[in-house]
Specification:
- With 80 residues, the chain is an all-alpha fold.
- The chain has one domain.
- The chain is built from three helices and no strands.
- Helix 1 packs antiparallel against helix 2 and helix 2 packs across helix 3.
Length: 80
């Protein structure tokens, strides 16, 4: 896979995970503890699957990309 496509896949997957993570405080505030546990586990499962099924495969093909993205996140707080 072309490195630019690989970077694009990771960027889109990160953007997909962000709104899922952002739901957690709202759910914690407005759901019962039991409801929150159910939804937070489901969200964690989805995020883990995105990481495993997309990002880990991309990083296996382009290990240098992982370091580049980590540097972007550290410096800019996002993938550029």
């Amino acid at each position: 896979m072309d490195k630019r496509i690989a970077r694009y896949i990771v960027a889109v997957s990160f953007r997909s995970m962000a709104p899922l993570q952002q739901m957690l405080p709202l759910l914690k505030e407005h759901c019962t503890q039991e409801e929150y546990q159910v939804y937070s586990r489901a969200i964690a499962t989805v995020i883990a699957e995105i990481g495993l099924e997309l990002n880990n495969k991309v990083f296996a093909s382009h290990p240098e990309l992982k370091q580049e993205i980590e540097k972007d996140m550290e410096k800019y707080g996002r993938i550029l």
